[in-house]
Amino acid sequence: MDTKELYREILNEHNLNPSHKKDLDGTTISLNGVNPSCGDNITLNLKVENGVISDGSFTGNGCAISQASCDMMLDLIIGKPQEQAMLLADNFMAMIKGGATEEQIDSLDEAASLQDIARMPARVKCAVLGWRTLKECFEKDGCASCNNPHCEKQ
Which pLDDT tens digit goes with each residue over 82-111? Predict the structure, then answer.
């Protein structure tokens, strides 16, 4: 199987059968992310306990790339400390911009299959929607304690 076929298979699996596209009871963080250029939108729902993302989900609508990328992101970050999730988001952004090391790409597991999106400028915003929303949660310093002005749980 060549790389393009593997990419399509992984993308299709996460788009057609997402593990994390559902409502989530007891969320501590809920933040909406929108790609205004195409209309994709997600609401990222996280349970953060003692600085660890114990569970997560997303809802919303969008293209296969945005939905699959968000599902892959949640596969990676659930069970990880907030700081590690942010590092993975940084690694994903570096990969999409074409500046990631092999180690950074390897850390992304299945999400690394989206590496070629960097060659499709119109789809980059789709691929980073969930990751950008995650970064916004934690970069606003306090979403875990609900000080984020964008957090819907306030």
Answer: 999 999 999 999 999 999 999 999 999 999
